[in-house]
Amino acid sequence: MKHKDGKPGSHPDKNSRAFPMAMMFVVLCGLSFYLGGIFCSERNKIEVKDVAKVVSSPKESSVAPLQIKSTAFPECSSDYQDYTPCTDPRRWKKYGNHRLTFMERHCPPVFERKECLVPPPEGYKPPITWPKSRDQCWYRFEIQCLSGISRNARLKMLVSLILPCGPGFRNVPYDWINKQKSNQNWLRKEGEKFLFPGGGTMFPRGVAAYVDLMQDLIPEMKDGTIRTAIDTGCGVASWGGDLLDRGILTVSLAPRDNHEAQVQFALERGIPAILGIISTQRLPFPSNAFDMAHCSRCLIPWTEFGGIYLLEVHRILRPGGFWVLSGPPVNYENRWRGWNTTVEEQKSDYEKLQELLTSMCFKLYDKKDDIAVWQKASDNSCYSKLTYPDAYPPKCDDSLEPDSAWYTPFRPCVVVPSPRIKKSVMESIPKWPQRLHVTPERILDVHGGSASAFKHDDSKWKIRAKHYKKCEAFSTYPRTYDLLHLDGLFTAESHRCDMKYVLLEMDRILRPAGYAIIRESSYFMDAISTIAGGMRWSCRGEDTEYGVEKERILICQKKLWHSSNQSSR
Predict the structure, then answer these.
(1) Using CA of residue 152, residue 156, residue 159, residue 163, what is the dihedral sign?
(2) pTM to 2 decimals?
(3) How many helices (H) and strands (E) in the chain?
(4) 3-state DSSP call for residue 95?
(5) For a disulfide at 566, which of 122, 218, 268, 294, Cβ 3.0-4.6 Å?
């Protein structure tokens, strides 16, 4: 018998039993080892009809690489040239209008997934290279009518249907923003290009002057304290584009709405942007993710629905982070006449906004002209006052995971930063670029995370990036991204991710002439190459920096092709 602590009890014949039990243990272990050796040796001789198991190396036993049937994927029709599966206007009518939920992510079910290659717009050409691309992109080309066919009216009608005359679009197939926002200097047409002079609704003198004023209000934008930002309702991402030159990396966010292609305009120019909307679900970011958030007349109703949208801004800002607002109701005293409202209404909205922000532990940091800046509390002393039912909004309870993001519904409560994270506030975090290599305090919240694991990963990727650069040079030509990288995705997620659909999605978002670096187990490489060939990619295999056989690198380039349904020149 044993006590609860696992120590052997004082049994009268314990010494007489110890030796036979030890011998039995040794014999069983030896037998298991022997049988295991026989099984492993014989396993490689067994032939299975569907999956052949062979030895890939004389030193190591493993299964043969995954083999799949070669398939040439068909072209999608030309009306899918800007297809966004999870924000597809064709499917909006299936969802409600309340708080614009139809604009949120609604991915199609498996039986509606497309198994075709999304064609580029007619006349697509390699994008303008960075940094010129920040301020311009290809707009249009002219389709010339055929001459000498007026004698035959029927032939003329037929040709006009097949080959219409007049302008065609190149890389961004929309002109709506130019027509609607021409008076606000968002963009303008010049020859074959759209030019982006940096104008906006709230900064008609240009984004540079607007950001200069903002930096006067927030000195932390100049010294490397602020590195990450999010722009909600970004327009054509003029603000985010300007901040790139100032060392601040900005994610520009906007929905796919009547402002056709605003996010596409940003991506075409090489400015980070995603489709998204603050509606009923959290944004796809963990808590404390950004140093600064910005809204320039983004038309988000911040004071409605109990301030639920402000609560999401609060969640994604790190302690001590800044929220910048320009547009209604800021500077209502001078601006209200242009907002189709009354000065009393705008004053009421501003007071309500200030009251909500104060209740969420924001304080007014500075204000000048059309720009107002609030700062999130750096410590948790303010949150101790948020006790339900006396305070609204109340603190979230411990059951609400602050970092849960994908498809997580909003909750009308304040996410209080963890008291364990004290070095992640704006005042304590290292300035950029030193911040890049400093172990983040919240690494301990990651499964298996530690300071040593972070240092190892940092060192590993320095080696990998250096190794990747020994491939031929990468093209800077971006359709959305110039370069995609996968590291062990199928090894980790093959049980729930269909390889075919993952690679088709990569093809959709990768620019023609763009590259994909796929780092995977050798087991998956042949299958990946087969699917890539069906997508008209050209690929070659490379060794990893360690030169091991069990892992390989596949370098693939997407070819530029035009739909067979498009008119010839």
Answers:
(1) positive
(2) 0.77
(3) 13, 16
(4) coil
(5) 122
pLDDT tens-place values along the chain, 569 residues long: 433 333 333 333 444 444 334 433 333 344 333 323 322 333 333 232 332 332 333 334 468 899 989 989 999 998 888 888 888 888 999 998 999 999 999 989 989 999 999 998 888 888 889 999 999 988 765 554 444 444 444 334 333 333 444 455 567 655 555 555 555 667 788 888 888 888 777 887 889 999 999 999 999 999 999 999 999 988 888 899 999 999 999 999 988 876 556 788 888 889 999 989 999 999 999 999 999 999 998 889 999 999 999 999 999 999 999 999 998 999 999 988 878 889 999 999 999 999 999 999 999 999 999 999 999 999 999 998 877 667 889 888 877 899 998 899 999 999 999 887 778 899 999 999 999 989 988 888 778 889 899 998 888 888 888 876 657 333 222 378 889 999 999 998 888 888 999 999 999 999 999 999 999 999 999 999 999 999 999 999 999 988 888 999 999 999 999 887 665 44
Which own/partner pairs from 305-309 qualify as long-range (CB within 8 Å, at least 24 positions apart)? Answer: 305/99, 306/392, 306/393, 306/412, 307/356, 307/359, 307/360, 307/393, 308/410, 308/412, 309/278
Residue 516 pairs with which residues in a beta bridge?
484, 556
Beta pairing partners, 367: 372
Token duo for residue 561: 């092709």
Q: Which tokens go with 415?
A: 């996410």
Max Cα–Cα distance, the chain, nearest Å: 118
Q: What is the SS3 string spanning 472-522?
A: CCCCCCCCCEEEEEEECHHHHHCCCCCHHHHHHHHHHHEEEEEEEEEEEEH
* DSSP letters spanning 49-78: SSS----SBTTB--PPPP------PPBPPG
E strand residue ranges, 203-302: 228-232, 249-254, 273-275, 290-296
Instruction: Let me know: does 374 contact 259? Beta carbons within 8 Å.
Output: no
3-state helix, strand, coil in the chain (%, to 5): 35, 20, 45
Sheet of strand 481-487, all strands in order from the earlier edge strand to the far edge: 481-487, 510-521, 551-558, 537-543
Cβ atoms of 57 and 36 closer than 8 Å: no
- Distance from C-alpha of 149 to C-alpha of 153, rounded to nearest angstrom: 8
The continuous run of DSSP H or E covering 379 comes out as none
Return the DSSP state at 406: T
State phi, psi for 229 to the nearest 5 degrees.
-145, 160
Tokens of 237: 């991402």
Return the number of other C-beta atoms located less than 10 Å from residue 122's C-beta.
19
Measured distance CA(564)–CA(566) in Å, rounded: 6
Rounded Cα–Cα distance for residues 235 and 197 (Å): 13
AA letter at 430: P
Could you tell me which of 539, 500, 382 has the C-alpha nearest to residue 116? 500
Are the C-beta atoms of residues 138 and 192 closer than 8 Å to each other?
A: yes
* Nearest one of 252, 251, 256 to 84, comparing CA atoms: 256
Instruction: Please state, in angstroms and rounded to a whole number, the distance separating the CA atoms of residues 165 and 146.
Output: 9
